[in-house]
Structure formats: structure tokens, C-alpha cells
């Protein structure tokens, strides 16, 4: 949810997780992730499942803006959403350097829940 609040890219989430693992191990919050690309790719199905659940519960949305169209990009629907979640290039740079720039943002539903007491 922190990533959604920050309007982060999916390809930053697993690195953030890896960094937090290092922080927990070392106590040093300046340590970067030590996960290599193979380890990151192994985590994609689990992270994709969690993100799909959050989308289904209408707590977050995923968009895939382009250089010429950032504002007003619609949330990814149905099969396009699942394609983005299954594509390792959404999470980790591909060996050829290709990556998908999929943005995760929070929804009004999350905002209402976060503000309720």
C-alpha cells in the first residue's frame, strides 16, 4: 500500500521488499536489495497474486502510461491487467533491458478506509 500511495512502479516493489529484508537482517536502512534477477523472478507469482487480490478488492489500480499519455490513463482492465501481472518485465528488467512501466495507485475505496476511524 505504501507503493500505491507513492504511485510507484511495479518494477520497484520487489526491490523494496529485498531492501527491507536487508534492513531487518542488518539494522542498516541504507542497505540495498541483495536479490538478484533470478530471485526476483521467483517472487513474481506471489507478488502478482497479492496485487491481483488488492485490485479485486478495489484498494489499488494499475495503469500503464506512455510517454505521450500520462494523465488520464485508465486502469488496466481484465486480461490486460492479468497480462501485466504475469509479465516478468512488469516486475524486473528483462535480460534485453525491456521493462513495462506499470504504475500502482490507491483508490478512493482505500482512501475512505484509511480515513475512517
TrEMBL record:
Protein name as annotated: Uncharacterized protein
Organism field: Polymorphospora lycopeni
Taxonomic lineage from the root: Bacteria, Bacillati, Actinomycetota, Actinomycetes, Micromonosporales
